[in-house]
């Protein structure tokens, strides 16, 4: 993966999406379609975005028994997405089944979509994890355990916070992708995110990709903010 800035299209319908994308005329983007949009618009939204030559991360965070995940992934691969994901909490057998499904569904002559695992959501704090999930180790250890499981299962990488990237790279290696949401410019509202950081911090810590939603989609001038974030991410602007 070529260190993309992935824009999270957290919109309720395709009208809002295409109105937003009018601001990015001519740009080939890496776009994340999540549950909100996909559950309303379904597969056609993926075809329409691919037709415009955007790359797509379909962020449905699958988490079910292995056979169900395998069958669902077969269908998602057929849509032609570039990247999909599962919850690492579903376990090794489930993650391996996800890959089998993707291999089976990939259209002949196309590349299998990348597959990454969500570790601990970036909206989760260590205190919350310990209290609600009864996980006794530190948040970092829990994230690392999930990342190791994902690696052993053959996945391409994980979704994690920028704060865990260096640890994961040290333990698992540089070729294992770390896709990091929870990105904010210093002056931004953090909303429901907890483990946040700036694009510059993400770059300095070696993240493979950043995922940015509301800082761009809810900005008064989305294209200008996109460019600022992109420059910080690429190290052109400090
Ligand atoms: O608006 P914001 O930049 O916080 O959006 C982050 C996006 O990344 C959302 O679409 C959210 O679903 C997604 N995400 C996340 N944390 C994860 C996995 C995905 O925030 N661990």
Automatic annotation (TrEMBL):
Record-annotated Orotidine 5'-phosphate decarboxylase domain positions: 4-229
Family: Belongs to the OMP decarboxylase family. Type 1 subfamily.
A Gene Ontology molecular function term of the record: orotidine-5'-phosphate decarboxylase activity
Stored HAMAP family: OMPdecase_type1_B
Gene: pyrF
Domain of life assignment: Bacteria
Lineage, top ranks: Bacteria, Bacillati, Bacillota, Bacilli, Bacillales
Active-site residues (renumbered): 59 (for ompdecase activity), 61 (proton donor), 61 (for ompdecase activity), 64 (for ompdecase activity)
Official protein name in the record: Orotidine 5'-phosphate decarboxylase
């Amino acid at each position: 993966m070529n260190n993309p800035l992935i824009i999270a299209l957290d919109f309720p319908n395709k009208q809002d999406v295409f109105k937003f994308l009018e601001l990015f005329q001519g740009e080939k983007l890496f776009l994340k379609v999540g549950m909100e949009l996909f559950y309303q618009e379904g597969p056609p939204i993926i075809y329409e975005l691919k037709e415009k030559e955007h790359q797509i991360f379909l962020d449905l965070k699958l988490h079910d028994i292995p056979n169900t995940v395998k069958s669902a992934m077969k269908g998602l691969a057929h849509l032609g997405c570039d990247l999909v994901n599962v919850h690492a909490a579903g376990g090794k057998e489930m993650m391996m089944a996800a890959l089998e499904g993707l291999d089976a569904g990939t259209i002949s002559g196309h590349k299998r979509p990348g597959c990454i695992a969500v570790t601990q959501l970036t909206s989760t704090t260590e205190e919350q994890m310990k209290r609600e999930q009864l996980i006794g180790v530190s948040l970092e250890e829990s994230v690392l355990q999930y990342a190791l499981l994902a690696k052993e299962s053959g996945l391409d990488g994980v979704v994690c916070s920028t704060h865990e990237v260096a640890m994961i790279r040290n333990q698992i290696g540089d070729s294992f992708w770390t896709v990091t949401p929870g990105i904010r410019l210093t002056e931004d509202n953090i909303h429901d995110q907890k483990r946040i950081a700036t694009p510059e911090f993400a770059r300095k810590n070696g993240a493979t990709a950043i995922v940015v939603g509301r800082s761009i989609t809810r900005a008064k001038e989305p294209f200008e903010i996109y460019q600022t974030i992109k420059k910080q991410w690429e190290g052109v602007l400090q």
